[in-house]
Each structure stands twice: as C-alpha cells, then as structure tokens.
Amino acid sequence: MNLNSIPIQEISTCAILVPLVLAAFKLKTGDSKIRLFFLFLLFGALVDGYGWFVYSTDQNPVSHSILQYCYLFFEAIFFVWLCTEFLNYSKAKVLRRVFYVLLFSTFLFKGWVLYSNNWDPSLASETNSFLDGVFLISISFLSAFALLHMAEREYDLLQFPWFWILSGMFFYCFGTFFIDIMVQSGLFISLYKLRNYVNIIQYGFFTVGIMKFNRVKKI
Hints:
Number of strands: 0
Structural class: mainly alpha
Radius of gyration: 18 Å
Number of domains: 1
C-alpha cells in the first residue's frame, strides 16, 4: 500500500470522534473534570468539522480562523486548569494564575496580530508561530510537572485515567512545538504533515484514558 494514498489529514480530523463519543457516556457518572474535557473535545470537533466544510467549499476562511482562535484560547485555559488540579504543591493556585496571565497576554497579542493581518495566519506566520510556541512549551512544562506529581501519589499510573489524558496533552504539545518553530525553514512543509500523526496519537492516549474510567472507583 502506498502511504501517500492514505488520507491522513481526514483520519486526523475524524480521530477526535472516538474519545468524544466515549467521554459522552461518562458525563452522568463523571465529575467536573470529565465534563469540561468532553466540552473541550466537542469544541475541537466542531472547529475541525467547520474548517473542513469551509475549505472544501472554498468559503471565506476568516470565520474559521476566528473560531479556531477562540478554541485555542479555551484549550490553553482548560489545559492550565486541568494540569494544576493534579499538582501536589502548596502554591498550585499561584502557579495557575501565573500561567493564566502568561497565556492570556499571549493570546491577546496573537488576536491583535491575526486581526492586523485579516485573520490570515499565513500572513503573520513567523509571529503567529512564536506565540503558538509559547502556548505549546508552557503546557508541555506544566503537564510534565503534573505527571511527576501524579507519579508521587499514584501506585499504578497505567490504571489511572488522567495519567493517559495528561500524557496525551504532553505528547501533543511537546511534539508539535518543534514542528511549529520550524515554520520559516525549508523543512516545514514536510514536517508539518507529522502534526497529523501526533494528533492521532494524542487522541489514542485520550481514548485509553477514558476507557480506564470503568476501572476506578474514584477520580
């Protein structure tokens, strides 16, 4: 089979539906974390679906760029909140506020840059890539910190649902960070395709984590 014939972009877009459907079945028995995680997945699926519609029908992409910007901002705030929920650290709330301020400032600047370039990310690719890098490396650090604290408290990490979900977040943010910072290099086009594989693997982590909820009594 020719690997180039595999519709990896479409698979990456649709892969979110697997953890989304599984998370929907956990809403009645789960706590606020799983409900917000479901909203995060639902928001992402709607943005991806709308983007697919916009570009396949040659619609004006501005509306999708604005919606994607709002989603990324929600994603950043949610990731910070979720990671700090698992910190065994006396000043976890202070650390949460610091990251809130950092990412809120970053996304305000990102919004201004996109607005100044008619919401076309390609017109401000270098600056936009740097700002996305701030978000990705921040969440990479915070999720890794949370995983370390989680390891100190959990005896069987592989059976703990949020270990898999936070690992998926770390893998995606850390993996795509190095891809995005090469936006100005000649390797970017070929490396950018790797984002689809990273994205699929992330949803694989999410799926495993959600399936683990059946095996624990308390989250």
